[in-house]
């Protein structure tokens, strides 16, 4: 018996058996295989086909004549081995992220004694995003030589997570080998590996903003589902999807250190990168308090301060601001400011600077102490008669404090003490020269003015009463007066002095004997301002001197305002409807010329064919605004503001 040789690596091997029968003159031969008739005939040779490899067959020959049959002794025969057949693929028992456990059984047709099993593996390698794969070469990962069992197990370790692999079994006997089909498996996901620290870039200084960016892990070991960000070890309460690789962090403080780490997560778990650290840039300080001030003297103030509550960097310098100037204080916390003016209020503010900018505090104020007054000008003397002189003076140009009193002295004798800046000295001797000085005093001392002298008139009129004033109109007043009580001679002229209240400029109108007003002792002063108060006094002169009255005042009447600006108009629609409204706003006249009692607002419709309509009084009152709602849509109107003053004039 001999086998036909195989024609393929893992193909089936057919077997053929030849039986040589004895050369005898018999009637028939019969061949039995394991008791089963396989052949009957006269030929003495028989070819057995379709035998199983490596199988024991027992053959018996029967020879028959007419007289009977005889049997040979049973002859055992083994077919030769052939390559195994029908090796089933391995069964995946369990799958981990780096291991696969598989099992297999012997082939359905071993066709001989199995001498070894080879576990073959091929894997498909992909990139970090898993959208491209490359098939690796097949390789033997395990060989099993103990083949007496029916079932076999192997745990393949050292695999990459989330990788597609295939396994097959290569079965060998002495006659050949066969291969199973591939069994596919994919390892489970695992925590990512090779996640680099995030990169940090500063994108804004004020307010501080950081751009944190990251890249996918070198080995994702699965499908990245999300990224999480940690700042200073604290996990943010939100996560990012797998396609987000940056985040701008805004809730930061200047000049502060932060560390960031990125966590990548798949279904196999999460892994965290090493942290990246950064210090935000310096910014201008915050919380700069006003400086504390202590007055030392009339020319010195000690200024001290505390560092800002939020420095936002290293303080490089402090500056003091006052009098519109900045003074460098370095990095000290106090400064003595000298060369100041006495009794002067100074506003100090502190400026604190870092490399990121400067911040100024609110101002704090202090007064320097008082010092003795300085620069007292001499008083002015006005001879008002042969027996009187009017003395006026001004406060010292440098009071250095609050003036508490003035002392007026005539030829060294004290005449007056008080706060008034004028004094009328009577009961003097006509034609005498008198000298006057004024001393201004504050808490620290006094200053004496230079001496000034003047001589009373040798025989001037005296007892000149103030004139009588009567308003003739908003721009005219009638001034009348009586002769002096003591003329002391023939009055040669009068002079009317008129000035606006609180104004120093005085207008003089000379009235000599040829003037129309000389005999009537009345004068109409015109070209005045309406609703203004004026002071008037009269001076009467003889050839030997002059005498003046005291000042008396009057206020000119009101007159119609002038230069009333046009109102400001704004067209609106009433809420929830289509009724138009006009909001009007106006100001008081540029020249009120009195007290405006109320305003009148007139409206007229601008007609397109028949001309303009008559004005209609829309509003009167003291307000300077009005909203007109009684209007027709798409109609042109004109408005006019009139003001009414005291006598109901416009």
Automatic annotation (TrEMBL):
Superkingdom of this protein's organism: Eukaryota
Parts forming coiled coils: none
CDD domains linked: FN3
GO cellular component, one term: membrane
UniProt domain Fibronectin type-III: residue ranges: 86-193, 196-286, 287-374, 375-459, 460-562, 567-650
Matching SUPFAM superfamilies: Fibronectin type III
InterPro entries: FN3_dom (IPR003961), FN3_sf (IPR036116), Ig-like_fold (IPR013783), RTP_Phos/Ushers (IPR050713)
Pfam families: fn3
PANTHER family: CYTOKINE RECEPTOR, USHERIN
The protein's name in its UniProt record: Usherin
Annotated organism of origin: Camelus dromedarius
Source lineage: Eukaryota, Metazoa, Chordata, Craniata, Vertebrata
Gene: Usherin
